[in-house]
Amino acid sequence: MITSTIASVKPARGRLENLLHKVKTMDMKSLERSLEAKKRYEFHERTLTTTTDDEEKYAENTEKREVKESSH
Q1: How far is 54 from 61, CA to CA, in rounded Å?
Q2: Rg of the chain in Å (alpha carbons)
Q3: Which pLDDT belongs to residue 62?
Q4: So what's the pLDDT on residue 2?
Q5: How far is CA 65 from CA 46, 53, 54, 61, in A?
Q6: Residue 11: which H helix or E strand, with range?
Q7: What DSSP string describes 36-70?
Q8: Which of 7, 30, 49, 70 is 20 to 30 A off residue 23, Cα-Cα?
Q9: pTM of full prediction above 0.70
Q10: CA 65/CA 59 separation, integer angstroms
């Protein structure tokens, strides 16, 4: 039983060591650029959403004003 457990742990340990080596040797610059791009995209999306919401509110207020003016 112990032998089979040790045999199953060795490949897992090897995979973990390989993964750790990959992480240690990773190019962090590409990750930093990806994060910057993500932040820019999220900012752009928020800006578009805010602009659309503002335009919708303006249109609603304009319609309300036109209705009030036409009822007088």
Answers
A1: 11
A2: 29
A3: 80
A4: 67
A5: 28, 18, 16, 6
A6: helix 2-24
A7: HHHHHHHHHHHHHHHHHHHHHHHHHHHHHHHHHHH
A8: 7
A9: no
A10: 10
Predicted local distance difference test score (pLDDT) of residue 71: 67
27: tokens are 């190019």
- What's at 22, amino acid-wise? K
The token duo for 55 is 């335009």
Determine the length of the chain: 72
How far apart are alpha carbons 30 and 36 in whole angstroms? 10
Mean pLDDT by 10 residues, the chain (72 residues): 70 88 83 86 78 74 75 64
> In which residue are the tokens 């602009």 written?
51
